[in-house]
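WP5 quarterly update. Target: Transport permease protein. Source organism: Pelovirga terrestris. Length: 262 aa.
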Amino acid sequence: MVPQPDNRFYAWLPFVTLLRKEILRFRRVSTQTLLAPIVTASLYLFVFGATLGNRLTVLEGFSYAQFVIPGLIIMGVINNSFANTSSSLFMSRYLGGIVDLLVTPVTPPQFIMAYTLAAMLRGLLVGSVVLLISFLFATLPWEYPLLAALMAMIASFLFAQFGLIAAIYAHNFDTLSVYTNFMILPLIYLGGVFYPISILPAPWSSLSYLNPLFYLIDGFRHAIIGVGDTSFAIAFGVSATIAAILFAWAAWLIGKGYRLRS
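Structure tokens (predicted):
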């Protein structure tokens, strides 16, 4: 009797194929997707680590390099996770390749997770290399390494979902640039990457708590150096809640095929 193939394998084959396609996509242009952001982060590390790292302090007991490095790592994770899903899905829409993908037996959850896992891989790879380079400039205490890894994964997952949503709503390449230049980057810079919000005067210190990226940055830094402007529970709770909301939003849009079939 000839053994029957496992139907579960065939059910997940489209997901594996799409995931492999997305990983190969950013690997083929690794100079742009991996090397360029690493060089940019290295320049930040040189400026704030080699030149100001031991001459400036914004947090008692830590050099400026120790303070700023966690923010630069999470910034690399955020930017590259968003860029991967937003550029890939938008190009599929723009070139019409999304039509071929929609007729394949890929379920909406598989569709989302294939794009998400590839984006997380790219974001975490960039963040890991930035971390390795940072060893040249400062030694980090790593108080809670598992919590730091969890926050990095939440950040990459969150912005992978945001990238999918942005790609669906974007009308052209300029719209994607608006999301990056006028939303993500300002929120990163104002979220405490280069300074603790506790040193800001009122009302700016209070307004900073309305910035959703503050909780990602502060939670990641808190897990590494052991000091933060807010508690772990609040930082992780707010970040995980936003990630869940964006995932539900992306799932709803993709499940309906909103602006994907036109």
